[in-house]
Write a structure and sequence with these properties.
homodimer; about 325 residues; alpha+beta; 13 strands
Amino acid sequence: MAFAGVSGTIGGAGPLALLHGGAWAIPDTALADHQEGLAEALAAAQFALSDARPAIDAVTRIVAALEGHGAFDAGCGAMLNRAGDVELDAGLMDGPTGRYGGVMAVQRLAHPIRVAYDLLQHGNGQAALLAGDGAEAFAEREGHTLVANETLICERERQRYAEHRAEADVDSSDSFLPDNAPSDTVGALVRDAEGRLAAATSTGGMTGRRSGRVGDSPIIGAGTFADNGTCAVSATGDGEVFMRWLAGHEIHARMRHAGQSLADAAEHVVQVDLAPNGGSGGLVAIDRDGNVVMPFSCEGMYRGVQCEGDPPRTAIYR
Amino acid sequence: MAFAGVSGTIGGAGPLALLHGGAWAIPDTALADHQEGLAEALAAAQFALSDARPAIDAVTRIVAALEGHGAFDAGCGAMLNRAGDVELDAGLMDGPTGRYGGVMAVQRLAHPIRVAYDLLQHGNGQAALLAGDGAEAFAEREGHTLVANETLICERERQRYAEHRAEADVDSSDSFLPDNAPSDTVGALVRDAEGRLAAATSTGGMTGRRSGRVGDSPIIGAGTFADNGTCAVSATGDGEVFMRWLAGHEIHARMRHAGQSLADAAEHVVQVDLAPNGGSGGLVAIDRDGNVVMPFSCEGMYRGVQCEGDPPRTAIYR
């Protein structure tokens, strides 16, 4: 079966939330923590759906739950860059309006997705993508508390950083990415009761990456995309490759211009465009009819589905 | 005629360079300076073409000439953000390989396009998009000199900033963009003697914009895109709208999935997707057969064409 686990047409016409918590060869030692984090986020999803929140509000709450849990590479569990700092990216997009917001390379925000949401709400078309200090200044103005970078660093990632650094030839390069770097980015999609789609993605990048590196997560059309005419998409994987192929927008374009189904479009992008070109990883995608696909090209992808009022469903492997 | 000025099928199978220097209602007082800057960049184009440089090298040289001239909103002529600082974005993409590089929100680089080029050359897939201080640290490591921000501020833009600021209600907002903000972004496309396509774009944003704001220029698939199977594109205009519609990648997708010509695809994106949705501006685009289009939805767009060995051609209005 091409899309095992929780894919297919599910949830009928009702509200529906999907989420992912990274796609890689997840070690057994990390399973319990990840499952607990997924469960918490699915509970947040159920709350948002039952409260009849707009899709864009719901994805923000779900991703904020994933950022806050600590199991994932987002928010306070983020991996450390070459300098040993947490540096976060997040983006989201509203399907009915095409509005979006993204923050990149921020170091003092516990919940970058909430700041991206504020940017979407208050941007007025003036600024939808903000980087670094400017993004943090905007956040402070919007009432978010800036935190010290150290408070976002957890012991697990401090250790991972130390191990990677010890193995690397640090002097010869301005980054020391391991092979098969974990991709623990988080994301959520929602179709709400009125049929509105939304997508949100948040990440802490990879251990040892260059300072200032921005991946596909906050980039509209790459790791995050939503258009009510076609689909909503949130991706996790080798960000540079997902950006080059415009993973989210390419699925949209295949549906819009080639008349492909969500499943065919998403499968092609993940297995033909991305995987053979160095883009290991996966994505979750939904269309307005409630079709759900979660293709991935690596060993496993943490993923979950919450239909309003139903028990949550999760899957990791194929 | 849909594409006046220098559009059409030109240059036969020979090497060809296109460039733009912004799309807006250009005041008469700025004409001479812009025309001189275009002429210098076209001379750089002629040199690069006659020297048989690869397309990606040629677009870098052309855009570096535009960044260095001072007439345009890029490099040392850049407009100032709300804080009164120069903050630059640049990106480029190589059509045959899909490699790309981009730097965002950098304050101490006179030629951000050259740093984006280095990122493309040495990125090894590890990092293709860098923001802020991290981008500047990479640049320094690659041998670029970091300059004080003040050295990038020209008198013309200091005055423009002071005028906008005096007219704005500065305290009520974290930006003070004027209506019909000038869009003086620069870009270049090249098809070289071996048929390789490349695109490059560089910008200083708009006067009074939020600090940290990143527009479409460095974002692959938005303001800059190149794929030898379809087209190369460089855009200038309301960046937030060009990002939402993925202007460059949408032209590519229409050619690839809907079988449209370059002219039809580009015309649709500029006049139907962008212009009615607040996305005033324009773009230059080229396909591998040497078809050239330069559609815009505003009063004028500075644009030029250089076929190897021919006299340069330029146009502003329709």
